[in-house]
Amino acid sequence: QVQLVESGGGLVQAGGSLRLSCAASGRTFSTVGMGWYRQAPGKGREFVARINWTPSTTNYADSVKGRFTISRDNAKNTVYLQMNSLKPEDMAIYYCYLNAGWTNYWGQGTQVTVSS
Predict the structure, then answer these.
(1) What are the φ and ψ backbone dihedral angles of 99, each rounded to 5 degrees?
(2) Looking at beta carbons, which pairs linking 28-32 to residues 24 or more positions away fall under 8 Å?
(3) CB of 45 within 8 A of CB of 39?
(4) What tens digit of pLDDT does each residue of 46-78 get?
(5) Of 108, 96, 105, nearest to 72 (Cα)?
């Protein structure tokens, strides 16, 4: 099993920044990649960003390109999402996930609130 613990959410004004963290533990040796999805009130869950293990490539939703950066710390088994120039439409619960081949593991989610 894999456990994911997210942190770093909170309240920020529009134009501000936040950094989310996702620490993975357990059977992480099969990791193919990790990333983030988000879900705003009344909406479905949408892809935000992903970082692949080998090769180390990244993917972003068009809505966050140029503002968000995903990175990882191998030694800490942690993935980060640096979010800059936040907009009210970025407000959502952000969920970390770990892809291990056929299986995805999810964190509990962390709330990001952006005030205008």
Answers:
(1) -100, 120
(2) 28/2, 28/77, 28/98, 28/100, 30/100, 30/101, 31/98, 31/99, 31/100, 32/99, 32/100, 32/101
(3) yes
(4) 999 999 988 889 999 999 999 999 999 988 899
(5) 96
